Amino acid sequence: MDNARPAEPPFDRSTEDVGNIVEVGHVNVGVPDQQLAMVFYVMGLGLTRDPCLRTGVDNAWINVGTSQFHLPVGPRAQILRGVTGLVMPDLAALTARLEAVAPRLAGTAFSYAGDLEQVDVRCPWGNRIRVHAPDAHRFGRMRLGMPYVELDITPGRAPAVARFYAEVLASPARVASDALGPFACVRSGIGTDLVFRETARPLPPYDGHHVQITVADFSGVHRRLHARGLITEESSQSQYRFQDIVDVDTGDVLTTIEHEVRSMRHPLYARTLINREPTRP
């Protein structure tokens, strides 16, 4: 009888795990001026306004691969406490578009700087967007999309944030560090991560912006959030919301970012999004 132990598998199979969060559907930031928003997101970034939904003057949905920006019009701008990462196929064309719209955005917080690998952009109200060239090692097959949403948190809280997502959201989460310091990375579907970046910069007050996620175990997440008193809105049969990320032992609030949580039966889940080719006239 051969009692030899099986050889170690040649691959790290955990890198293929998706986890309970199956997508980051959109980032929602309010804007006070829809026309300026269209100049920036459509003319400048070269993204596509969704032609099917929210086509009026009080909101706009902007497609970027399989994710979106939602831009409801309101009295004040909302500023994500962090940076939204995008992948776009042609950064030279992107910088040309941004240069072309710069006169239309004069007097705003708009700016951009970068090279053919990465361009850092600020919207007219100061939201930070980091655009990357496609990179098979970092972003797989993605050529247009939203590979991460990076959120700023207070130093020392990354491990507790990762534990919250692992235990309450049932999504793989890890803590790591790079040249910018420690962060928690939460796997949020095949191509997108939620990243919580520790920073010593003072964080502005939370202003109500949100991210939308879809989860497979919809009722399990709801049950665990409800037990902790974290549900803030029972939106519909297939959607609810929460906003505080807490220490799972003490209940202390670690950071606040509203999550619009949808089930995979939500009528908008996996809806095909139209993405135009921005270099065409």
Detail the poorly predicted runs.
none
What is the ordering of alpha helices and beta strands? Answer: EHEEEEHEEEHEHEEEEHEEE
Secondary structure: helix percent: 10-25%
The portion of residues forming beta strands comes to 25-35%
Main sheet specs: 8 strands, mixed
Total helical elements: 5
Task: Identify the strand order in the major beta sheet.
Answer: 2-3-4-1-13-16-15-14
Instruction: Indicate the CATH topology.
Output: 2,3-Dihydroxybiphenyl 1,2-Dioxygenase, domain 1
Brief sketch in words of this structure:
This protein has helices spanning 34-44, 91-101, 136-139, 158-167, 218-227, and strands spanning 21-28, 48-49, 61-64, 67-70, 82-87, 111-114, 118-122, 128-132, 145-153, 173-178, 181-187, 193-198, 210-215, 231-236, 239-246, 253-263. The chain is an alpha+beta fold. Strands 2-3-4-1-13-16-15-14 form an eight-stranded mixed β-sheet, with helices on one face.
